[in-house]
Amino acid sequence: MLSAYKKEDFFLLEDVAYDRIHPARIFIFFWGVLGASAVVTAVTSFATSYSIYIQAPHWENIVTINYLLLCIQFLVTVFFSFPKTFYRFQRIQMIFVCLFSLKLSIDFYQFIFLIREDRGLPILIDYGMLLIILGGIVFLLFSIARSIKRVKQGHFRHGGKGLYNFQQSKGYVSLPIIFAASMIGGLVARASFETSFGELTELLFFIVVTVVIQYGIAMAWPEFLLIAYCKFRFPSFIVPEEKVDNKKSIKPNANRKKQLQVNQYPLSYWFFRPLTVFRSRASLVSGEKAPFLAVVIVWLQLTLLIFIVFCGLYIRNAMRGVFEVENVIESMSVYLFMASILSLLLLIIFRVCLFAARKLKTI
């Protein structure tokens, strides 16, 4: 289908492969998806085990599949967290990017099905969600066909418009929005005849967020697919490994907008050195100063750690009594917000302490 096209027809995608979907950044995506999958698996497993209202037999199989996929994700994420591996196996890495992003796009629908069954809401909500999921799959296939068509039209050549040209693609963007909004509106209107609208408000929030995630990934996924294809076909799409101790500049390529920054440590270097990030920002260690994105990564790491502690405390207390699924999800949302704020405060305090230490060191 695309074998007749040359590397020049994918020029703009090569810029993306060296920048936004750089191998050193993909491992951050892997850890984020792993965290999301862990939350979904934990809530699903906990709810089906302790809620007296969820009795459908299929949930046992779903929980088993969740655990199996979570283990696979964990092994893959750890494997691709080191520069030696994610530079060497970039083709395989992109395959897992495509697979994990597809899984992420439908993971959170489990929350909707759990809440619906736990609250005893009308079964037509499940049917409506299945239609919306099917619509997202159709939109994904349409997005893939559109991306291939844009390759044939030369939009990825040098000076082309690329994949996302929303000003001239209003129909492509508006069609899924109209479909999803119509389905959600009709679903809520129909379900309100059998239950109160107040009971649907929380569920409506999860429906909107989950649909946005699925349809957003369906819009971006063809780019992942094309880059994976190009990595298998064109050697120039394979990003060369950036040596941490290599401070020599490389000869710039006039045809490429994005240049490799070999004089910077990759993000994976800072990912496993959270204390070094802040020490370098405070000029307490010699060498290169950590970028601000490394600080954000440390904040997310600390947030996840505190969130896990909160969840552990909640599970210990919840096991002593009966609870409802929506209470679990609400508590998880509150705990995640509290963890993000608490981790931010701790990092600010730590930064102030390092600043004071640097001042004392200069006295």
From TrEMBL:
Keywords: Membrane, Transmembrane, Transmembrane helix
UniProt organism field: Evansella cellulosilytica (strain ATCC 21833 / DSM 2522 / FERM P-1141 / JCM 9156 / N-4)
Transmembrane segment boundaries: 28-53, 65-82, 94-115, 127-148, 169-191, 203-229, 290-315, 335-357
Protein name, entry field: Uncharacterized protein
